[in-house]
Amino acid sequence: MNKNKHHNKKRPAVSYKEYVLSLLAMALIAGGGVYAINRDRQQPIVEYLASYPDFADLEKVTKTYQEIKDNYVGEIDQDNLIDGAVSGLTQALDDPFSGYFTGQNADDLDDSISGSFQGIGAVMTIKDKQVTIAEEPMKDSAAQKAGLKAGDVITAVDGEEVTDKELTEVVQSIRGEENTEVTLTINRDNETFDVTLTRSAIEIDTVKGELVPSDKKIGHVTINSFSSHTADEFKKVVEDLRKDGAKGFMFDVRQNPGGLLDQVAIMSSMFLEDGETIVKFEDKTKKKNQIIAGKDLDDGFKIFEPAVVLMDSKSASASEIFAAALNQSADIPLVGETTFGKGTVQTVAPISKESDLKLTTSKWLTPKDEWIHEKGIKPTAEIDFKEYDDLKIISTEQTYQLGMSGSSLQNINHLLALLGYNVTADDEQFTEATAAAVRELQTTQGLPVTGIIDKETALKIQQLIAEKIISDNRVVDKGIELISSKLAQ
Question: Which part of the chain is the PDZ domain (predicted)?
Answer without folding.
Answer: 106-175
